[in-house]
Specification:
16 strands; about 400 residues; 3 domains; five-stranded parallel beta sheet; about 15% strand; 16 helices; alpha/beta; Rossmann fold
């Protein structure tokens, strides 16, 4: 029969050891512990009681400890070294504040402060690490150029030219409408380079019409390529929102220059219509994506995001925003606590704050209503009333600074 062995933690010394299910102590503690001295949690509780008692009564005798705590002489004898240390009152200074302590390096107050500082520093390091990772991902995900052409030879040639001339961009390809729409739904496409050809299984104008009718990609910049520059096709493409028409076969340098020009026009337009800056704080990643999508579709704004209150307060220190939208239900620091920190900061005194919640509890709603908040909205799907509240708060946010 196979011997069953499992990994355990010795409750006496804290070491990890491998032993049978019936083993309670590690091999060292089993060898040195007196027979019957191990009492599981009762012994641990008794040790704690002795420590607390002799801390409060440094001059207590063994008989006083036994009578007051109700423990046996044998148990006290097993812990005589611990008790003797406290009874002798061998104090030493705390390494941080100098306060006299009996054991350890730091006093309890300094330990609490150091743990909080370590926690905050750890969160700051995690925040910096996440920002670097997000920026690295954003460089790739926000620089997508999609090339759509029914001819695989033209498709591969165009992709090669763009990859050589524009290494900072990721070039995706598609040879049919379904593939093109899927790419634009999954990736944030900066530019669509679309061939206007018509064949039995491909129609460039139909793809352009589908892009303009789709809510997710209707604002994508489009450039058309054509092998037959017919006046009617060019007119239709321009009327449907195409920025430029490029004749095939095209010169590689001319193609790169005109694509860069279209991207520059997109950047100028984005800068001119970005008016507001909103900080969105929510520790629920799924809810945050929905909230961000709803707000970005209804307002011309730049959205900053934070996954917890500490991260949000750091962003407020480095950025000037017009509105803060914060989730009420967060584990580490909820929305009302973040609101209290904002109101205490004189630099942020007039900053509009909106609380987001999915709760129907009247007690919670009253606590939000009675706070110094601009209002509250339901999350994650923001209704028309919530959008109106955001609009009014943004108009106020232009003047709080």
């Amino acid at each position: 029969m196979a011997l069953t062995v499992e990994r355990k933690v010795c409750p006496r010394c804290g070491r990890t050891f491998s032993g049978r299910p019936s083993d309670k102590l590690c091999g060292i503690c089993s060898a040195v512990a007196p027979a019957g001295a191990y009492q599981d949690k009762n012994e641990i509780n008794q040790r704690t009681a002795v420590r607390d008692y002799v801390k409060a009564h440094p001059g207590a005798t063994d008989s006083e400890i036994i009578n007051n705590l109700g423990i046996s002489k044998r148990t006290l004898r097993d812990m005589s070294k611990v008790a003797q240390t406290f009874k002798n009152g061998v104090y030493h200074p705390c390494a941080r504040c100098g306060k006299k302590i009996l054991e350890g390096i730091y006093c309890s107050d300094c330990l609490t402060v150091l743990r909080n500082e370590a926690k905050v520093q750890g969160e700051r390091n995690d925040y910096k690490r996440r920002i670097v990772q997000e920026e690295a991902v954003a460089v790739k995900s926000d620089n997508i150029i999609l090339v759509v052409d029914a001819d695989d030879l033209n498709l591969n040639m165009t992709k090669h030219i763009l990859e050589m001339g524009m290494p900072a961009f990721k070039i995706s390809t598609a040879n049919n409408q379904i593939r093109a729409m899927n790419v634009m739904h999954q990736l944030k496409t900066r530019l669509l380079l679309l061939d206007d050809a018509v064949s039995h299984n491909y129609d460039g104008m139909s793809i352009l019409r589908s892009v303009r009718e789709d809510n997710l990609c209707k604002n994508v910049k489009v450039m058309m390529t054509t092998a037959q520059a017919k006046r009617e096709n060019v007119s239709r493409g321009i009327l449907m929102g195409a920025l430029d028409y490029i004749n095939k076969p095209f010169d590689p340098k001319n193609l790169i220059d005109r694509v860069n020009k279209a991207l520059m026009a997109e950047a100028i337009e984005f800068t001119s219509r970005t008016i507001f800056k909103i900080l969105l704080i929510d520790d629920n990643v799924a809810d945050m994506e929905i909230e961000k999508s709803v707000v970005s579709k209804n307002f011309s704004c730049e959205i900053l995001t934070a996954s917890n209150g500490v991260e949000g307060l750091w962003i407020l220190q480095d950025n000037v925003v017009d509105l803060v939208m914060v989730s009420l239900e967060m584990s580490f620091m909820d929305g009302l606590k973040i609101l209290a920190f904002i109101r205490k900061d004189p630099k942020l005194k007039g900053l509009p704050v909106i609380i987001m919640t999915n709760s129907n509890d009247p007690t919670i709603i009253n606590s939000v209503t009675n706070s110094s908040v601009r209002g509250y909205i339901r999350k994650p799907l923001i209704d028309e009333e919530g959008l109106l509240l955001i609009k009014n708060a943004l108009n106020e946010g232009k003047y709080w600074r």
